[in-house]
Amino acid sequence: MIDIDKFKAINDTYGHPTGDKVIKAVTSTVSSELGEGTIFGRVGGEEFALLCNAETSEEVIALIEQIRLDVEKI
Q: Which residues form the GGDEF domain (predicted)?
């Protein structure tokens, strides 16, 4: 599961159109890191699910850390 930190505050402060832009930016950023066979989708609100075909827990940790770093730059 992936959750956008402080998303409610973004919506409350800047409005839903800005919140929608944040969701699209996060979706685009995460999608750019995913390999073939990985499933990524929005569960609801600011929550997303990621199902990857990594072979080791180290690969999963590396992927999630890269996603976190990329999203942090938005």
A: 1-74
Count the residues in the chain. 74
Tell me how far apart the alpha carbons of residues 62 and 72 are, in angstroms, rounded to a whole number.
15
Q: What is the pTM of this model?
A: 0.82
Active site residues: 46
Question: In whole angstroms, how far apart are CA 3 and each of 7, 36, 55, 56?
Answer: 9, 22, 24, 23
| Residue whose token pair is 């973004």 | 10
Distance of CA 41 to the CA centre of its chain: 9
Identify the CATH number of the domain in which residue 28 sits.
3.30.70.270
- Using 50, 70 and 90 to split pLDDT, how confident is the model at 56? very high
The domain of 29 spans 2-72
